[in-house]
Design a protein that fits this description.
Length: 226
């Protein structure tokens, strides 16, 4: 059966940074598998592939095969049992490294939406995929509607790329240099302690004062005799 291929433009959702903050543009391949039995361990079968051609421009190709008749029945059975549908995204980066992300959905929600779902791909500032999650696009809420098998033909998947916000990077190099200079100055004896007498020796003075106060309070008769 010929796989259904379509070109989609990935919607870019930027938190507070723009796509221009991505240091290096690149491509990412995502292999999609799903489990239609919800057993432990899951039995994964192929669902399709997604290629994000440009992380900066947000252009992707989605290639997913139509469901086979037996797969439609399995999904309908999961829905009738109020069970769960699982999808695994295997991400392959430019350097060949792989990461896997698993999402779990209510099978009845997927069936009632007629296989209309959304795939959210989270990218950090280096262009690395840090998360992939699947959500249902419709407002279906598992109301018990019986979905005809002919309506479960093809996944209608839209991909969203989310660029995660990066916090400020601490200037550790300057701090380390400062510590090294202070250490060298101490070793050479160049640093002077300009603190006051109390600031230098308060840890000795305070216990002495407390001891004197306790001693005075514990000997009132001796003080009266004097």
């Amino acid at each position: 059966m010929i796989a259904f291929t379509r070109l989609v433009f990935v919607a870019l959702i930027i938190a507070t940074t723009s796509a221009s903050t991505l240091e290096h543009d690149g491509s990412v391949t995502i292999r999609l598998q799903h489990s239609l039995t919800f057993q432990n361990p899951p039995v994964w079968t192929e669902r399709g592939n997604i290629t994000i051609v440009s992380l900066r421009l947000g252009q992707a190709t989605v290639d997913q095969k139509p469901l086979l008749p037996e797969e439609k029945k399995l999904l309908r059975d999961l829905s009738a049992k109020n069970s769960y549908y699982q999808i695994k995204a295997i991400v392959t980066a430019n350097d060949g490294s792989q990461k896997s992300f698993i999402s779990t959905l209510k099978a009845c929600m997927l069936a009632e939406s007629e296989l209309d779902d959304r795939l959210s791909v989270s990218i950090d500032y280096m262009g690395r995929v840090v998360g992939v999650s699947s959500v249902i696009a419709s407002n279906s809420a598992c109301e018990g509607a019986i979905v005809p098998l002919e309506n479960l033909k093809q996944f209608n998947t839209v991909v969203y790329v989310r660029h995660t916000e990066t916090g400020p990077i601490p200037d550790t190099a300057s701090y380390v240099q400062k510590l090294e200079k202070e250490k060298e100055a101490k070793e050479k004896g160049e640093t002077k302690d300009n603190r006051s007498f109390l600031a230098k020796y308060w840890m000795y003075i305070v216990p002495l004062l407390i001891f004197m106060a306790i001693s005075s309070a514990s000997n009132p008769e001796a003080q009266q005799g004097q």
